[in-house]
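Before we proceed, please read the two lines closing this message. Let me know whether the structure tokens fit the sequence:

…
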Amino acid sequence: MRSAFTAFAYGLLLTGFATFVSWAIALRGFGNLYYLGQLLPIFMTLYLLLAWIIHLKKTAFLQPSRLRQREDTSLGQRRHNSGEYLPEQKVFEGELVQKLSLHNENGLLPGRPADEDSATEQSTCPPALILVWSACQLAALATVLYNLFGIGATYFR
């Protein structure tokens, strides 16, 4: 819940930026407020496209299939998609301690220090969520400007 509120608040910053840039381009560049109603949905589309690209990058969809590796469960060795066995990867000491530490459903067992990385992960907000919130805010703003004030409805005013 806190992450959604944080994303909404950061989304307001992106919405304000898109609104200011759209307003400046519409009045200073084109000389007509009509273009504000056209530029806000363009920013909304760009934000959604950027959020989708970030999501695809996190899910490893954009990596070429020849570079992806899969686990061979029968032998426990990593194998490339071409069937060639790859050498074992070295594990750093911090990763090994993290893998070997005992966890319960709430995190570390009582008496063990909390991990600093997990605390920072919970306090940060995913950028894709911020972009989606900003796109929703821009859609609402463009709708209100169109319906209440007629901005973007008619070219000559």
Summary: The first strand starts at residue 69 and ends at 71. Confidence is low (pLDDT under 50) at residues 116-121. The beta strands are 69-71, 78-80, 103-104, 107-108.
